[in-house]
Amino acid sequence: MTWRPEWEEPQRRGFGFGRGPGGWGVARTLVVLCVVVTLVNMVLAANATPTAGGPVTLAPWLGLTLHNAVWIYPWFSYVLVHDAFGVMHVLFNCVLLWFLGIDLEQKLGRGRFLTLFFGASLLGAVAHVVALAALGGSESSALIGASGGIFGLLFFIEHDVEAGQHLGGHRHEPEDERPDARRQDLR
Fold first, then answer.
1. What's this model's pTM, rounded to 2 decimal places?
2. Helices 110-134 and 88-108: angle between axes, nearest 10 degrees
3. Using an 8 Å Cβ cutoff, are 149 and 121 in contact?
4. CA 100/CA 21 separation, integer angstroms
5. Residue ranges per structural domain of the chain
6. Alpha carbons 156 and 154: distance in angstroms, whole number
7. Cα distance between residue 60 and residue 65, in whole Å
8. Domain 28-156 -> CATH class
9. What gap in Å lies between CA 118 and CA 95, rounded to an integer?
10. What is the C-alpha to C-alpha distance for residues 158 and 82, in angstroms, rounded to an integer?
11. pLDDT digits (tens, 9 = 90+) for 131-145
12. Closest C-alpha to 33, from 117, 112, 103
């Protein structure tokens, strides 16, 4: 039996710009922000005069450290900052965020997608700070990158697959449990 349009779940819409099919969306915006902040970080590290503490980067200001954990912004801004001396970290994070994020945003809507992504990022940040404080880590070592949020997206997808759905929003039901089969039995 083939897929039928009446089994399709309605697409949920969230808030923000680019509403509707083919809109820009927040997943793409997060990717662009990560790339732009990382490029600024790379230029800053390459052109600024190194200090006694090492090269000048955005990580101490936007990354999450034990020193700036008392502020609210680093708990979320660390997601945008990536390694200033290599591209693999930002490349892998942005490719995964692009491919997973766009589909999940369409399925969940912008608000739920942002809640999932930044909720997972916040959970990863809390785990990092607790582990760093418990193990007596350096106050200057910064948490950077979107990996916590991406792992949250992956865990959500895994949970969705176990529940019998996939990113397209279609539920895979056994042949005899599909709505059409039940309607024919009732006639």
1. 0.73
2. 140
3. yes
4. 17
5. 28-156
6. 5
7. 7
8. mainly alpha
9. 18
10. 26
11. 988 988 787 788 999
12. 117
